[in-house]
Structure formats: C-alpha cells, structure tokens
Amino acid sequence: MTGEEGTRQAGAPRVRGAELLALAARCIESDVPAALVTVVGAQGSTPQRPGARMLVLGDGSVHGTIGGGCVEAEMTRRARVALENGRPVLTTYDLTPEQAGDEGLVCGGRMEVFIEPLEATPDLAILGAGHVARPLCALAATAGFRVSVLDDRDRYATEARFPEAVRVVVAPFETAAEALRLTPRSFVLVVTRGHRGDATAIASCLPRKPRFLGLLGSRAKMVHVLTDLAERGFSSEDLARVETPVGVEIGAETPEEIAVSIVARMIAVRRGVGVDDIRPMGAALPGRLGRIPAAELESRR
C-alpha cells in the first residue's frame, strides 16, 4: 500500500502485540499523531480474528496488520479521518467474495473494528496574563491540559501568578507561535488586554493552524479584531478558524465563570462533541416517578 492507503516497508517483519503497544505508548509520549486499530468482532471467513491490531500514524505509515489488502487500506483511511476529528469510532467492513478473490484471499465475511485516536496531554497556550487568564489556567490544568502562558508584561507573566502552568513566558505577542512552539494539535486562547494585542497574537498563531483558536470578547470586539486581521492579509477561511466569542453560553459573568464556559468548550472539542450536541444532560423522570401528583404526597405527610 502507498499514499492514501498507508505505507509499509516491503518484507518488513510483523510487529508483535507487545511491541505494537510499546510503539503506541511512545507515540503518546512524543506527541506523534497515531490511531490504534483493533479487530473486535468477526463473522464468516475473514483475514484476521478479534484481537488483531495495527497502528496508523498521521503520515499514513502502518505498523502491525489486521489482514492486509482492501480491508487494511480502508481501515487506514478511516483511521486517518479519526485522527483529523479526534473521535474514536466503531465501524464494520464487509469483505465480499468478489473482493476476497481480487485480493487472492479465500474469505468473505464481516469485520468489526474499533479505531481509537491516541492523544497525548493536549497543550494549551493562553496569550494574555490578565484577570481571566488566572482561573482559566488553573481550571484548564485541572481538566487535563498542559498550560503555557505568554504576556509581554513581566509583572503579569510570573510563575507566582500561574503556578499551574508548565511555562510562563514574557515575550511580544507577535512571537507567540514560535515562543510556545505551537503545532496543529495545540489549543490556543487569546485573552490579551486590547484589540491590537488580540489581532497580533492571532496573526502569529493562524499560520500554525492550531486545533482550537478561541478569542475572548464581545461580538463588537470580534468585528474590530477580525477586520484588523483582514487588513493584514488573512482570508475569510483563515478568520473562520477563530472561534469568538469563545465558550459555552451559561450566562457567565465573573472571571471564574468565564473560565468554566471556555474550558467546557475546549473539552467538547477535545472529545469530539459538536457545538450542536452541547446540551443539558438531565432526563425526564421515568415511568411512575413522573406521575406522582403533589396531592398524593401531601396526604402522606
């Protein structure tokens, strides 16, 4: 297989299960995009049985095997899609007798496959070290993000103010992407003290195409900042990558409440939950529990 179908060196030895899991662990530790593909069910005659695994890296390279041929090529493609959206998926593949014949296999059945994107601790860059940044840093770190903070004011960007951060950097906002080594897997929150700082910070980050780029502020502020960015030469496609006003609508007012709103949104992105799927989790009372009249309760007292 080559290109979009994944790559494997010809004649390379099969990877044992323990070796494959060790490689997966190294990918997580090194922040290398990878997805673990496992056969969890099989019906009929299939090239591999439950338990077979392969590891698909972000560049399309494949380690291990779930049977080769058309099924492996398709699961490699689906694994790369899962890597892009960050969502695990349980999927099936039907191997028809015709496909099996084309691959030189004597089989025809259905395979059930679980594809799990492997994710290291996500990096969050907070650009701006003001009053919202402090609870934002603390809550995001508690939620499992590895937080770095950058501001151009040394009296604000201090380890004493941000003890939960792994890095606190004093640097101009135009150098933010380089200073914090942003990647396409980074989360970025822009919370500087003014429109120009916001636009400058975003302009630094946009070329890195971070996984999430949020801007704190009102809709009026959004217009000012995005207009500034357009005048700097950014396209509408670029501007659409900026989520603003950032957060989930919960009526937040205080810095701590705003932090909850923003971190909730980032968790949804991390877990692959779409904007339209964010909703209350409460369910209606089931069965007779929903039909107990208040008068009946009064009579029991």
List the main descriptive attributes of the protein structure presented here.
5-stranded antiparallel beta sheet; globular; 6-stranded parallel beta sheet; 301 residues; Rossmann fold; 2 domains; disordered N terminus; alpha/beta
Question: What is the fold's blueprint, element by element?
Answer:
Blueprint (H helix, E strand, L loop, with lengths): L16 H14 L3 E12 L7 E5 L4 E3 L4 H17 L3 E7 L1 H6 L5 E11 L4 E5 L5 H10 L3 E6 L15 E4 L5 H4 L7 E4 L4 H11 L6 E4 L3 H13 L4 H4 L2 E2 L11 H16 L23 H7 L1
Parallel strand pairs: 6-7, 6-9, 7-8, 9-10, 10-11
Antiparallel strand pairs: 1-2, 1-5, 2-3, 4-5
Description:
- The structure is a single chain.
- The protein has 2 domains: 3-118, no CATH class; 123-275, 3-Layer(aba) Sandwich (Rossmann fold).
- Helix content is 34%, strand content 21%.
- It has 301 residues and is α/β, with parallel strands linked by helices.
- β2 and β3 (62-64) form a beta hairpin.
Can you give me a brief rundown of this structure?
With 301 residues, this protein is α/β, with parallel strands linked by helices. The protein has ten helices and eleven strands. The longest helix has 17 residues.
The general outline is globular
Using the coordinates above, name the CATH class of the largest domain.
Alpha Beta
- Indicate the mean pLDDT: 87
Report helical residue fraction. Answer: 25-40%
Largest sheet: 6 strands, parallel
| Neighbour order of strands in the largest sheet | 8-7-6-9-10-11
Query: Secondary-structure element order, as H and E?
Result: HEEEHEHEEHEEHEHEHHEHH
In the CATH hierarchy, what is the architecture of the largest domain at level 2? Answer: 3-Layer(aba) Sandwich
User: How much of the polypeptide forms β-strand, as a percent range?
Assistant: 15-25%
Number of discrete domains: 2
CATH superfamily of the largest domain: NAD(P)-binding Rossmann-like Domain
